[in-house]
Amino acid sequence: MMIEQIEKRKINGKNLCCYRLENNNGMKVEIINYGARIHKLIIPDINGVERDVVIGFNDIGEYIGSADYFNAVIGRTANRIGGAEFVLNEKKYFLYQNDGKNSLHGGKVGFDSVFWDGSTENDELVFTYFSKDMEEGYPGNLSVEVRYRVTEENELVISYRAKTDADTLCSLTNHAYFNLSGDFNQTVLGECLRIKSDYITAIDEELIPTGELYAVHHTPLDFNTMKEIGEEIGYKNEFLQKAGGYDFNYVLHSEREKNAWVAKAFDPKTCIEMEVYTDMPCMQFYSGNFLNGTKGKAVFEKNCAFCLETQLYPNACNIPSFPSVVLKKGESFRSVTKYKFSLFRPETEFFKIQNKL
């Protein structure tokens, strides 16, 4: 395993740095300190051709000031908070409204849009950020650490840690946009996905969780059996119609489990397969419904990538029945998510499941 800094430049008085992590199997991951973002994630396909499987920009400077969350760390809280407000310890806090009247992915300047301090420690790339009290409306000084590691088993391991000096909210994730074909000019609707989940959190017209759970069995939202992402995306379903595709929080397990297998995706052309393991209780599956022509490595149109964002329950600060996302003073937030890449061949079980591939 090798880690090296491959680029450094000054932008607006800040050091913009890019690091590369590489194993002996040809897996390479480039990560920048702006938003602690994944810039490239390269996997050799079944023919040995290197495929970059995350969208983004060609030049690392193009991420600066971008309104897109491409492959960034999200915080203080992932996903949406209804009404952009919450009550904590009998005090109401107001957040920035950047999603209609709601708050999305940390607010106007979330963790995706700040410079992190980067360093290397053994086989890990370590990013740290100090979020000051009342930054984006959140109480408490929050010290955050995100670690990236690439293993010889072709795993990208992301470890999150945070600690606060006052009660606050904290739910961290990475907003990686995957296209396992490496061809960003085509959609991911023909890629296949399985999610181990029986429920999503029901949403209202503004995609805010209502507190109800919706059983996915026998609906187009059921991915317990592997199927193409686009197979049922156009079906008449109240939630698909509200979101314009898939943009739902899947409930994974009732309690946090260490290193639990939760999802698998693969591309039938490159034969690149990705599995997701996490200790988070939920995961947002997003089919890139709001991508609308941003120019980067390609022109990113609707459904050209998908996201599997592990997280705590969204809008939990406003729904007492959901497990809390409050991080108490002196306590630590810890989480690990792993994306594992491999190759499969036509004689495997997945082609038997999807015999049309």
Explain what you see.
With about 350 residues, the protein is mainly beta. The protein has one domain (about 1-355): Beta-galactosidase, Chain A, domain 5 (Distorted Sandwich). About 5% of the residues lie in helices and about 40% in strands. The chain is built from two helices and 29 strands. It has helices spanning about 240-245, 350-355; strands spanning about 1-10, 15-20, 30, 35-45, 50, 75, 80, 85-90, 90-95, 105, 115-120, 125-130, 140-150, 155-165, 170, 175, 190-195, 200-205, 210-215, 225-230, 245-250, 260-265, 270-280, 280-285, 295, 300, 305-310, 325, 330-345. The strands form eight sheets. The chain has a nine-stranded antiparallel sheet, with no helix packed on it. The longest helix is centred in the C-terminal third of the chain and has 6 residues, at about 240-245. The chain is globular, with a radius of gyration of 19 Å. Mean pLDDT is about 95; it is low at about 355.
